[in-house]
Amino acid sequence: MDEAVAADQDVGKGFLGSNFSLLAAVLIYVIIVVAAYLRFGTLPEITLGAVAVLILPFAGLILRSKEFVKSSALIVAVLLTYEALQGITGALVTSGNVVSLAWVDNTLVGSNFALSVQRAFLSSAATLISTVFYGLHIFLILIALVLFWFKDRAVYRGYTYSLVVTSYLALLTFVALPTAPPWMTGTAQNLLGAGYKELPTVLQELQKVLLSGESDLVAAFPSLHAAYATLFSIFMFKLGRRYGVVSLPIAGGVYFSIIYLGQHYLIDLLGGVAYAAISVYAVDWILGRLRPKSPPLSASSVPVSEPTS
Predict the structure, then answer these.
(1) Confidence at 307, pLDDT banded by 50, 70, 90
(2) Could you tell me the CA-to-CA distances from 22 to 17, 50, 73, 74, 260 in Å, in that order?
(3) Which residue has better confidence, 78 or 109?
(4) Residue 179 — φ and ψ, nearest 5°?
(5) From the centroid of its chain, how far is CA 23?
(6) Cβ–Cβ under 8 Å, residues 84 and 27
(7) pLDDT (mean) for 202-231
(8) Rounded to an integer, what is the distance from CA 111 to the centroid of its chain?
(9) Cα 281 from Cα 39, distance rounded (Å)
(10) Counting runs of H as helices and runs of E as strands, what totals does the chain give?
(11) What is residue 179's three-state secondary structure?
(12) Where are the domains of the chain?
């Protein structure tokens, strides 16, 4: 019993003592949040970073894995900083330079794809199920981090790096090309609110917390919901075929939900998938270049068999 208590205390000390990056990120996040609120009267979106900073360290403590706590601190720090910057980006954007990509969908499929999907599947059941899938991307990331860490550290490393690269590539795109979702331009209904009302009270409150203070409404392209779901599926396949097959209907549910609920165009979805795939390829290439190569065998190192008489 004493050894278990000592181990828990050691993990806690290790977390506070050696993870300065997390503490610094939290401080930077708070400063940016306060500055944004004082200047623009808005708050950055409370999603991945805020949830992760609450859950991942405790997961490491419960699992008694100091290494997981230390490793998760970096990804939490990056996500916190990313979301704070995304909130500032949303506050700086004005309606004058926001574009709609509805014309791209019309070019690709010859119609208003989001509205067509809504008309084909509109029902209380579809709205409720889609709302649940829409909020899954956050929990998929947290589940993936824990699962990949304990199953395959190489998969965990590739996933975390790809997650970071995807997020920041998207952030640069949001700054360069602010894009409006379908519901904002009137090309589709905003069914997300209707879906919330059909959820149980507890889940309604959870959804409110996850989307409270959402300040970057003009960040439709690329869809990070689609990007994060794609990353989850790609690395589940890297973990194993059975894991990958299980991930497919989950990713498909997220894809359907973002279109059906009127939150993204088809091109936003395709952009999210492309950003995720590009990030995975880039990370794999970089890690492959950095991986130490085995030295070539010299003639003296090759065993020579003795001739038989």
Answers:
(1) low
(2) 11, 12, 5, 6, 37
(3) 109
(4) -125, 140
(5) 21
(6) no
(7) 72
(8) 30
(9) 39
(10) 15, 0
(11) strand
(12) 1-92, 95-289
Radius of gyration of the chain measured on its C-alpha atoms = 23
Mean pLDDT of 265-281: 96
Where is pLDDT greater, at 242 or 30? 242
The string of DSSP letters for 189-220 reads ---HHHHHHHS-HHHHHHHHHHHTT----SB-
Which helix (H) or strand (E) segment holds residue 240: the answer is none
- What confidence category does residue 113 fall into, taking pLDDT thresholds of 50, 70 and 90? very high
**Where do the H-state alpha helices sit in the chain?**
2-18, 20-40, 48-62, 66-92, 102-109, 113-121, 124-134, 136-151, 153-176, 182-185, 192-198, 201-211, 224-239, 241-260, 266-290
Angle between helices 48-62 and 2-18 (to 10 degrees): 150
Q: Cis bond leading into 222, ω under 30°? A: yes
Q: What is d(CA 184, CA 211) in angstroms, rounded to the nearest whole number?
A: 17
pLDDT over 80 (residue 235): yes
The residue type at 198: E
The two tokens of residue 281 are 């390829």
The phi, psi pair for 99, rounded to 5°, reads: -110, 160
